[in-house]
Design goal:
Distance between the termini: 32 Å
Helix content: over 70%
Number of domains: 1
Oligomer: single chain
Number of helices: 4
Radius of gyration: 36 Å
Largest sheet: none
Structural class: mainly alpha
Strand content: under 5%
Order of helices and strands: HHHH
Shape: rod-shaped
């Protein structure tokens, strides 16, 4: 009877051991999944927010230069037209990079408004309407400010997501440590059971006498 109890204990311990091993594999899977998502969030912060913020800075600098230049009286209309054309061409080159990033719905709306404003500036430059260009430049700078705020808000969201995933990995790591402790205890328990000698009493053959 003792032998049967020892075998039952060993079987139960082995079953628990298998169960703990499965839990470790599941935990490791989720840690890997969270790590990939964290990397994606960090890449999004860099590619779709930090780089875009740099593009917005370049836009702002170009529009501010246009506003400042067309307001100068010591430049003739041809010089102003040429200056505006060069700055708008630079903005158009940046547009290609900007559009390669992931844009939110509001960001698309504001970016389209900025592109329309640039097109209007180009038209006004053709007619030498420098006063309207100055006013429109102020509107464009306001649009760029709205775009910059979107980058800040979206960057915070991505950072919050990355932190949440990182905290999740910490919890899974602590869970794995607990499982490893259980695994070690079970392994030691099985070794003890293995060393136990099972004594089986063999009945004597019946006497022929």
């Amino acid at each position: 009877m003792k032998d049967i109890n020892a075998i039952n204990k060993k079987t139960k311990a082995a079953a628990v051991l298998i169960f703990v091993t499965i839990l470790l594999l599941i935990s490791n899977y989720f840690i890997g999944l969270n790590s990939r998502k964290t990397n994606e969030s960090i890449k999004a912060i860099y590619n779709d927010r930090l780089m875009v913020s740099h593009y917005i800075f370049q836009y702002t600098n170009a529009i501010y230069q246009i506003k400042l230049h067309v307001g100068q009286s010591n430049y003739d209309d041809f010089e102003k037209q040429n200056f505006v054309a060069i700055r708008l061409k630079n903005i158009s080159n940046i547009d290609k990079k900007y559009l390669e990033t992931i844009l939110t719905t509001e960001e698309k709306k504001q970016f389209q408004a900025f592109q329309n404003q640039c097109t209007t500036i180009q038209t006004l430059s053709y007619y030498n309407d420098w006063q309207k260009i100055t006013k429109l430049s102020d509107q464009s700078l306001g649009t760029l400010e709205a775009l910059a705020q979107i980058q800040i808000d979206e960057g915070k969201t991505e950072l919050t997501t990355a932190n949440a995933l990182h905290n999740g990995n910490r919890i899974f790591a602590q869970f794995e440590i607990a499982l490893f402790i259980i695994l070690g205890c079970l392994s030691a328990y099985l070794l003890v059971l293995k060393k136990m000698k099972v004594k089986i009493k063999i009945p004597e053959a019946p006497s022929m006498n």
